[in-house]
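hi support,

uploading two proteins for the ticket. first:
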Amino acid sequence: MAIHVRSSSGVNLYSGFEFTVGDVAARAGVADTSVYRRWGTLEALLTDVALTRLNAQSPMPDTGSLAGDLHAYAAQVAREITGPDGLAVLRLTVALSNRGERGLRARDDFLAERTRFVQAMLDRAGERGEHPPDVLGVLDHIMAPMYIRVLFGAGPLTPDYIAGLVDRLLGQA
């Protein structure tokens, strides 16, 4: 844990892989082998640090209703991708995609973990008797349009636009 905390502070995960396990170990004040023993690869460490930061900054909402959860989640995502780190998560997943088998595995683990959080939110709605969409519906109808707008400058992520994405999805559910 100390490695994680000390090494992650000041590491710009999203600018690419401009550092090595040795750099991370030196920042944490431990031997390279300690980092390898805990994470195995630089990609796994970066994925763990990114998930930890993302989960701390944007926990999955639990408002008591599917509509409330999805509206809160969509607003969080919009703040993340238009905030100071911008499209950092997207850049990390693209960078991992170009790092061979280990990078692909780390990318898939990262996306699976975030998908599990969204699925848990949807499962809670089902347990309350609501009829949630599937997780791909959330990705396709809420996440993807927001990322496309930001990536291509296709328009701002206004509160009305974000609410409309959620409302359209719920109308289809």
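and the second one:
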Amino acid sequence: MWYAHNPGRRARQLLGDSSALLWTALWAAMALALHRLVQPASQPAAHRPRIPLLGSSVDGALRGVAHAGGRIVSAAPAPQGPAAAQALAVLGAVALFVIPVGLMLTVWLPRRIRWTRQAAAAQELAGTEDGRELLALRALLRPLDELAATAELLPVTPHETLDPAPDLDPDLDLDVPPRAGPGSLAKGWREADPMVLDALAEAELQRLGLRT
């Protein structure tokens, strides 16, 4: 599984993946452009035609690198000049592509792989009773505000109406049961309450984007 079921999360994942692809394509084009400028050619680097689809600042920076590479090549002995220019062109293009793309991958790729593994494991656990109990336990470890929101989704269980004591206010409503809270979720998990376990498991699946 590579994308979530939740439309909002899936849209964010698609946007992130598209940005990563565009970033890779951009630096690949710039690396190819640098290779064309630095490698041996019939025209000097300063007089070669402008590279399309690149801005003037980027094109100027690449031409500056090409001019510096030409000076390095011209300083080499004559028999080694073309080979040195070719090696410099390849090395510069590879470095220009690997450094920015590698930095992007170190940030983007681990997060995508981690979510994919978590989503696949959660989907497999959701199919068994013991697995849903593990998902419920994981949901119990979430922050208290998230647990409180999950507890509010539980239906209120009515309790038996008691006769008011003589010394109590007769207008006091004794039929309203207390609202469930994070503590009741922990108690329900310990007692293996099916309603609580299902609510916690569903909350964990929703957090991963596996529920719409």
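thanks. also noticed: The chain has seven helices and no strands.
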